[in-house]
């Protein structure tokens, strides 16, 4: 018989697992990993609202995507085009970024799988006599290691020709040059930290769903068990 068990700790772990998976996925897909050096607008470019010259813009560069201004749209407010610069995996600008993409993708796949499974932990608490929380916590720890490897390798690719075109000639491995880090990089770091927190917190979710109070509720014949 399926017992629906909901506790504060198990629900918090489930919600945090979903948030972490989405945060890492959004960061991976974003082009805002590097913010390039400012490019001044030409004297012929005017702001559509004020009629004055447009402010300098800063193009952004991601692992496989980029955002930049398109010249024939410069008189419009919507003058920035975002999309992948690499049509296939081999066209990613750096071998280090290719490795980063692989490690991040593997970590994100694991996190998305755990996030999907976590929704069903209210009904299923064990798999082959093993706690589903402990299994998911282990997978989250492995995913966190993949994410760390990807984030460590990413700055090694800052010396590639693509990054230099955005960040200037002084850009090199682990040196930003004229670029700055975008929100996607910081989101990926924050998501990695939260991944390990989830892995540790999964043990608390296991303790909460297998506590004496839960067992007492089961013995009383209750199918829906909600505990704070």
Outline the secondary-structure elements:
Layout: E1 4-7, H1 8-29, E2 34-35, E3 60-61, E4 65-69, E5 80-84, H2 95-118, E6 126-127, E7 130-131, H3 132-153, H4 161-167, E8 180-181, H5 183-209, H6 212-219, E9 224-227
Parallel strand pairs: 1-9
Antiparallel strand pairs: 2-3, 2-8, 3-4, 4-5, 6-7
Helix pairs in contact: 1-2, 1-5, 2-3, 3-5
Report the count of strand segments. 9
Given helix and strand content, the structural type is: alpha+beta
Count of all domains: 1
Q: Please compute the radius of gyration using only Cα atoms.
A: 23 Å
CATH-derived architecture:
Up-down Bundle
Whole-number average pLDDT? 83
Overall 3D shape: elongated
How much helix is in the residues? 40-55%
Which band does the percent of strand residues land in?
A: 5-15%
Report the uncertain regions.
Answer: 43-48, 73-78
Descriptive account of the structure:
It is found in: Membrane. One of its GO terms (biological process) is single fertilization. With 228 residues, the chain is an alpha+beta fold. The chain has a single domain, classed as Butyryl-CoA Dehydrogenase, subunit A, domain 3, CATH 1.20.140.150. It has six helices and nine strands; from the N terminus they run βαββββαββααβααβ. Strands 5-4-3-2-8 form a five-stranded antiparallel sheet. It has a two-stranded parallel sheet with strand order 1-9.
Describe, in short, the structure shown.
InterPro entries: LHFPL. With 228 residues, this protein is an alpha+beta fold. The protein contains 6 helices and 9 strands, in the order E-H-E-E-E-E-H-E-E-H-H-E-H-H-E.
């Amino acid at each position: 018989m399926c017992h629906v068990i909901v506790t504060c700790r198990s629900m918090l772990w489930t919600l945090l697992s979903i948030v972490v998976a989405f945060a890492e996925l959004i960061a991976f897909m974003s082009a805002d990993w590097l913010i390039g050096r400012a490019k001044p607008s030409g004297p012929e470019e005017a702001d559509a609202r004020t009629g004055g010259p447009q402010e300098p813009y800063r193009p952004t560069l991601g692992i496989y995507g980029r955002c930049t201004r398109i010249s024939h749209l410069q008189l419009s407010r919507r003058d920035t085009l975002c999309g992948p610069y690499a049509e296939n995996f081999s066209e990613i600008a750096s071998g280090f970024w290719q490795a980063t993409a692989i490690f991040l993708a593997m970590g994100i796949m694991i996190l998305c799988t755990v996030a999907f499974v976590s929704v069903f932990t209210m009904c299923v608490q064990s798999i082959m006599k093993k706690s589903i929380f402990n299994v998911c916590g282990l997978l989250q720890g492995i995913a966190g290691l993949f994410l760390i490897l990807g984030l460590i390798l990413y700055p090694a690719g800052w010396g590639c020709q693509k990054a230099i075109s955005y960040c200037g000639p002084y850009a090199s491995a682990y040196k930003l040059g004229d670029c700055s880090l975008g929100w996607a990089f910081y989101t990926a770091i924050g998501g990695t930290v939260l991944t390990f927190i989830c892995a540790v917190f999964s043990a608390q979710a296991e303790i909460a769903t297998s506590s004496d109070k839960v067992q007492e509720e089961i013995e009383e014949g209750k199918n829906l068990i909600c505990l704070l």
